[in-house]
């Protein structure tokens, strides 16, 4: 039943107490439903969003009369007690009284009573008992609301509501879902509503809340963001500078995009998930469930990222958390268990941490600038890196994090006074091997890590010099040194390498490791073993001592002192100029290179040894070498012959398998003219496959055959053959030929008889017709 249907200059009314107000007779307003109310204003907001389709006559602080009222957008209010203002569309019943969002609806008698709840112009509301007080706002869903302190202004610009007098509260806000609220009326947790509250908020989901926040995005259910607000852009949609009013929708959108990208972006908090809470924070990013980020009224938490569940960040900024059960919070003042110089006060804000991992229990993070990657890690040191599940710092007795320990024992090493934290990859009961470490720079000022090969090469170069009388014997680590005699007096002169700091730029380590030597002097009646070395003896008998270089060749001592081996080649020391290798480099197998005792003499004119314990001379050794070389040559030739026999044997075995395969190819037979066949052959470990084709002539007295085969050694075999069959074993073929001829004659007789019978039938038919 429709009551009070009316059509007047202002618009359409349907329903008891339905009402439209145009003031200047604006056409097109629609109010449908009991006590529905559609109201068109004439003010600055309407002028701005008219996009200069008509001119306005400004009559007061916030009033402007349009010259062409047909160019004014009027509202549509559909539903019991619904209210819509300029350019707005409201669809839904409004009968609820009680608390919703941050307001309390005490009565719901008509649409006019809802005016302050939906005074935002150009808003769209679809839903039962839902309200939107925000310009260009959009709401869809039941029991959702956008509230504002703004209730309109008088002709002098005086705010008719409370708090800030700003049209822009909830500007461009969006709600999609039920039981959601964007609140700009009462501040949460003792805060005052900011004049930028609600601007550009987007809430999608169920039972979410955004209070005194802007630039906020909520996707999910049961999330709450409060006091995440800051300046956002600087473009006032409801400003007073007429010259800056936009000429088109596109221009307004472009201006807003520019202001949001070039200017401030508000609280800019993103929450995706369920049960998350943010208070006094901005630039926060949460994905997951039951996470919390909070700051204080005087100091907001900023730039925190949380992805996971059950995490807390309290009064901290610039943290990244991926995982579960982290609690980042300031540590309460108490007696420090760590040196404050090494770890910070730990009562400072725990900022700048990066945490990745899932924890079985809540882990309190009170440090700053620390990275932890792995589950169940409990960092205790600032500026440190914890890698791997359950990694932790070492006990105090096993580490140098205390400055006094470093000063006492390691003052001579580079970087000792700059230690700010630690890197750990395990704990006391779980250690990990660090692999694939590049070689580090070795110098007096280097702080690079070194790898195992560098240590191995360094240790291999270490040696001791043993002085026995006038002799000095060099013994490398790992060699056995035997001392014999009585009354041995040994003293040690340890020549440590210099480790003093230098202000010069670190230079790359030399290609050969530095030698670390210690000299032992033995006094008294001693014996011992000598060392061996290489010497070069020229044609005149002059001997030159040689040393082995890093490339395995032999060089003079002078050459090694003035040259260095870099990038697999020799260069003059301190330059890139190639070294002169002639007369300086020798091969160990050079006939003039001899192996001798370092301090002994070469014995000459030694007769041929005869007895088992006689010395042998070089000629005897050369004779033995000649025989050995001949035997070696004979053995090599024998090996070649054996290989050739093996090769031919393999060829023969492969050929047999080829033949076996080809022999098993079936050939044409019976009354068929052609045959295509394949077969397989095996012999002596060789395998072969064959393919063949055979055929015969019409008389089947000539047969031809073509076949080929390949074995697993890759050897190919081909064959072709033909044959003519002569004579007769029996007269079967003759009989077949006679029967075929007789059959043809019978068929001819049958055809003739059929024709005669047909002719007789025709004669009988003619006679019967007579």
UniProtKB/TrEMBL annotation:
Pfam families referenced in this protein's UniProt entry, alphabetically: YadA_anchor, YadA_stalk
Domain Trimeric autotransporter adhesin YadA-like C-terminal membrane anchor: from-to ranges: 666-723
UniProt main location, coarse: membrane
Biological processes per GO annotation: protein transport
Subcellular location: Cell outer membrane; Cell surface
Compositional bias per record (Polar residues), positions renumbered to this chain: 333-350
Regions annotated as coiled coil: 621-648, 729-770
Biased composition (Low complexity): 497-514
Keyword NADP assigned: no
UniProt region (Disordered), positions on chain: 329-354, 489-526
Entry keyword set: Cell outer membrane, Coiled coil, Membrane, Protein transport, Signal, Transmembrane, Transmembrane beta strand, Transport
Annotated family: Belongs to the autotransporter-2 (AT-2) (TC 1.B.40) family.
Protein name: Trimeric autotransporter adhesin YadA-like C-terminal membrane anchor domain-containing protein
Organism of this sequence: Sneathia vaginalis
Source lineage: Bacteria, Fusobacteriati, Fusobacteriota, Fusobacteriia, Fusobacteriales
């Amino acid at each position: 039943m429709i009551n009070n249907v009316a059509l007047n200059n202002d618009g359409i009314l349907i329903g008891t107490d339905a009402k439209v107000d145009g003031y200047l007779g604006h056409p097109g307003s629609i109010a449908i439903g009991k006590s529905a109310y559609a109201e068109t204003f004439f003010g600055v907001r309407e002028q701005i969003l008219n996009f200069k389709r008509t001119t306005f006559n400004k009559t007061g602080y916030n009033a402007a009369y349009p010259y062409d009222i047909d160019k004014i957008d009027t509202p549509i209010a559909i539903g019991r007690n619904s209210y819509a203002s300029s350019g707005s569309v409201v669809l839904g019943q409004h009968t609820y009284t009680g608390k919703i969002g941050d307001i309390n609806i005490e009565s719901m008698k008509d649409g006019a009573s809802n005016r302050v709840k939906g005074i935002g112009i150009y808003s769209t509301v679809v839903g039962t008992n839902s309200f939107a007080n925000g310009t260009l706002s959009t709401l869809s869903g039941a029991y959702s609301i956008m509230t504002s302190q703004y209730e309109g202004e008088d002709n002098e610009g005086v705010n008719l509501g409370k708090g800030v007098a700003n049209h822009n509260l909830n500007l461009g806000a969006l709600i999609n879902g039920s039981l959601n609220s964007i609140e700009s009326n009462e501040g949460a947790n003792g805060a005052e509503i900011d004049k930028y509250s609600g601007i550009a908020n987007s809430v999608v989901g169920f039972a979410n809340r955004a209070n005194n926040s802007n630039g906020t995005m909520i996707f999910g259910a049961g999330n709450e963001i409060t006091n995440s607000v800051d300046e956002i852009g600087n473009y006032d949609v409801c400003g007073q500078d007429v010259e800056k009013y936009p000429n088109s929708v596109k221009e307004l959108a472009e201006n807003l995009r520019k202001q949001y990208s070039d200017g401030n972006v508000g609280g800019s908090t993103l929450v995706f998930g369920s049960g998350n809470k943010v208070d006094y924070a901005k630039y926060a990013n949460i994905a997951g469930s039951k996470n919390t980020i909070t700051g204080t009224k005087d100091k907001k938490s900023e730039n925190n990222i949380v992805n996971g569940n059950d995490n807390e960040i309290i009064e901290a900024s610039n943290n990244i958390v991926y995982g579960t059960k982290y609690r980042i919070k300031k540590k309460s003042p108490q007696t420090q268990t760590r040196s404050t110089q090494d770890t910070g006060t730990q009562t400072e804000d725990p900022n700048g941490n990066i945490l990745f991992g899932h924890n079985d229990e809540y882990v309190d993070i009170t440090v700053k600038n620390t990275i932890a990657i792995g589950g169940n890690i409990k960092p205790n040191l600032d500026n440190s890196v914890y890698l791997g599940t359950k990694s932790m710092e070492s006990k105090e007795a096993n580490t140098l994090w205390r400055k006094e320990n470093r000063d006492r024992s390691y003052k001579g090493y580079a970087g000792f006074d700059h230690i700010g934290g630690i890197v750990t990859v395990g704990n006391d009961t779980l250690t990990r091997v660090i692999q694939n470490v590049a070689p580090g720079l070795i110098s007096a000022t280097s702080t690079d890590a070194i790898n195992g090969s560098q240590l191995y090469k360094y240790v291999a170069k270490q040696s001791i010099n043993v002085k026995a009388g006038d002799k000095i014997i060099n013994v490398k680590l790992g060699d056995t040194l035997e001392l014999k005699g009585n009354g041995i007096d040994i003293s040690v002169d340890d020549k440590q390498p210099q480790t003093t700091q230098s202000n010069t730029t670190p230079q790359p380590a030399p290609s050969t490791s530095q030698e670390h030597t210690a000299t032992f002097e033995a006094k008294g009646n001693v014996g011992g073993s000598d060392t061996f070395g290489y010497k070069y003896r020229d044609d005149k008998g002059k001997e030159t001592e040689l040393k082995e270089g890093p490339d395995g060749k032999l060089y003079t001592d002078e050459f090694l002192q003035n040259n260095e081996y870099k990038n697999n080649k020799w260069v003059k020391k301190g330059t890139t100029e190639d070294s002169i290798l002639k007369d300086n480099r020798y091969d160990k197998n050079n006939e003039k290179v001899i192996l001798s005792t370092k301090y002994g003499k070469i014995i000459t004119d030694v007769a041929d040894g005869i007895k088992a314990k006689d010395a042998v001379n070089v000629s005897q050794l050369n004779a033995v070498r000649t025989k050995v070389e001949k035997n070696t040559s004979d053995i090599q030739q024998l090996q070649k012959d054996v290989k050739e026999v093996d090769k031919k044997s393999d060829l023969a075995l492969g050929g047999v398998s080829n033949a076996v395969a080809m022999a098993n190819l079936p050939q044409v037979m019976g009354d068929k003219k052609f045959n295509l066949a394949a077969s397989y052959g095996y012999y002596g470990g060789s395998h072969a496959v064959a393919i063949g084709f055979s055929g015969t002539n019409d008389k089947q007295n000539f047969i031809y055959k073509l076949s080929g085969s390949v074995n697993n050694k890759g050897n190919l075999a081909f064959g072709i053959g033909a044959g003519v069959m002569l004579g007769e074993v029996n007269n079967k073929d003759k009989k077949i030929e006679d029967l075929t001829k007789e059959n043809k004659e019978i068929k001819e007789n049958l055809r003739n008889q059929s024709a005669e019978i047909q002719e007789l039938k025709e004669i009988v038919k003619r006679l019967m017709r007579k």
